[in-house]
Structure formats: structure tokens, C-alpha cells
Amino acid sequence: MVGPVLAVPLVAVPAVAVLGMYLPSVPYLGLATAFAPWYLGWLIVAAAAGGLLAAALWWRRRARWSALVAVTAVLAVAGASVIAARMTAAVEAAGARLDLPALLTLGSVRPVAPDAEEVYSSFDGKPLSLNIHRPPGGDRPAPVLVFVHGGGWVAGDRGAHSDDLRWFADRGWLTISVGYSLSSPSRHLWDVLHGQIACALTWVGDNAARYGGDAQRLSLTGDSAGGNLAINVAYLRAADRLRSSCGGAVPAVAAVSALYPAVDPAALYDNDYPVTGPRARAMAAAYTGGSPDQYPQRYRSIASATHISAAAPPTLIVLPESDHLVPPAETVTFVDQAHAVGVQTQLVTVPFADHVFDARPGSIGKQAYRQLTDRWLRAHGQAP
């Protein structure tokens, strides 16, 4: 009995996950894209192991169920391998070089303590702080990479992606993660956050040198809602329309890298996919105070397309094709609009991937975000 008990789940779980990745629009089943990319290497291993076990049982007993399980395993391994190949090809075509054995990395992302924390301002009587990761000592000041965390403008904190920030710091950047005020059903900060992030950048301009950084070589990065804020702030600064909430001069932004950015909050509000749609709508409503029909000007002011100009800095966007939270079509449109006015843009679309597909160590998403951002910054003069 041990053989069937092991073989069936070893094959069934990968088979359902792979089927969901091929059918992302199917309610609930399609949400396999939200976790399967994290475990893609292990799905292949599990299905192969279960298939071999089922084949051995069939050889001994000629049971029909074992033959069915073995065939299902072959299909699951083939399907998962095609997915892995297509995801790998997409990011490697953009310049990444994946370490495929890393797909079998065990464990989860572990937070990395910053080297320093600083308060850059306050809001409603509460401090606004920064996490700082220093690069190894060098002969000259390091370029600065500022990260803006996601969370739908209602959640998250400056400790997010600390492993990535340490990775970039180890490669020569002074990395700084910005904490900002969060919205809620009773507090709508759509007209506050651009100024807060600008205030943080003003602090960076005044203080980066104390930590070995060169604020004249400044780039921004962010994910999801943080990607929206990073793009908006960089584009507003380029058009000389960004004002810091704490005064002072905001340094120029040389390049931007955004991971599944919520460039169009109105589309986020209109997301009608089961499970993720209500969550997306609640985030957008908390940030703005209501719907796009109620507050069209508020939504326009926070839409990244509103701030496009020919002066905008080079922008990289890594986009999961099957994102169930942030509709990807609007991001494609945004990139086309930016490119049309002369902004240097690169859109890397990753098939079968969903929101937060970079959340596990060694995953294709994790490797892609790091390597493509590193390559983009170096290509635009921000090499350490």
C-alpha cells in the first residue's frame, strides 16, 4: 500500500499545478500560477519520482491505475519542462543567465538586517524611516539604488526584499529601502505618497555620502504598488513636477527597474478575477477613497501613464504574463506609450508567471529580477 500512497500525490499535485499554469483564466485552477513557479524544479522532480514508482508498480502488478498515474506523470513532467524552458528562454533573451540547479533551492527567503536605519521625516506623528545596506568598501563612492516596497499602498514595509537589497549591495550599490505611510479604508493617501518618496530622496541626496554613496548616480526600483510609486516619482522628477513633502532638492533619477508595477490603479480596481479581484479593488479604493467613476482625477494623478515625458529615465519592467492581481495588459500599453515618446524602455514578459513569482530563493523570478536589474543599471551608467 505504500507505493500507491506515495505515487498518487507525487503525480497529482504537479499535474494539477501544471494544468493550472496552462489554463490561467480558469477560476481557482488558474491560481496555480501564484505558487507553481516557486516550486517548478521540485514539481518536475516529484512528478518524475511518482511516475517511476507507478511504472514499477504497473510492471509488478499490471494494475490499470498505476499505468494511468505513470502516463499522467509523463504529461506533467513534459508540461512542466516546457513551462520551465519557456520562462527561462524569456528571461535569458533579455540578458539574464539562469542557474537552473538553483530552482531546487530549499527553504524560504530570509530577511536580512540592514546595516543602518534612519528617520527621514514623519507623518501624522509617526516617523518615516529608511533601511540602508552598505556595499563593501571601495575606492570611490557607490551608486545608490532606492527600493520602494509593494503591498497595494495598504500593506508591506521597508524590510521587504531585504535579501535582494543585500545582493545588490554586495555587488557595489548602496541600497536604501523607503518606508512610507499606508492607506486604509479611512485614510486615503493618493496625494501624499509621491511627496513622501520625494522627501526620502531628498534625504538620500543630503546623506548618501555618509554611507559611501553617490546621490548623483541614483536609480529607483520597486515592486507592485512600489513599482507604481518608483515610476511615478522618477517621471515626475524628470519633468520637474516633483515636490518633496519636507522641502529641499530632489536628486535626479538615472534609471528605473520595476517588477510587476501597478501602473494603472483603475485597472486594478476593475480586476474581476475571483479571489484576487476583491482584494485588488479594496487596495485601490483604500488608496484613492473610492472607484474610478467617483474619483477620475485621483486615479489619473496616480496612473503612471499620466507622467510620461520624453525626459523620463530609462525604464525596465519585468512583467508576469499571468498576473491575477495586477492586470498585465495595461502595463504593456504603458510601455508602448513611454516608448512612443522616446523613453528608453525594456519590457520583459515572463510566460506562466504570476504576481510575486520572485518570492522564493533560486526561483526564475528571483534570478530574473536581480540579474536583469543589475544589467539594466550597468547599461545606463550606474555600474559600481
TrEMBL record:
Q: Which Pfam families match?
A: BD-FAE
The protein's matches in InterPro entries, at most eight in alphabetical order, are given as: AB_hydrolase_fold, BD-FAE-like_dom, GDXG_lipolytic_enzyme, Lipase_GDXG_HIS_AS
Similarity comment: family membership: Belongs to the 'GDXG' lipolytic enzyme family.
Recorded hits in PANTHER family, A to Z, give:
AB HYDROLASE SUPERFAMILY PROTEIN C4A8.06C
Provide the GO MF annotations for this entry. hydrolase activity
Q: Which UniProt keywords apply?
A: Hydrolase, Membrane, Transmembrane, Transmembrane helix
TM segment ranges = 36-58, 65-85
Q: What is this protein called?
A: Acetyl esterase/lipase
Chain ranges of the BD-FAE-like domain: 130-335
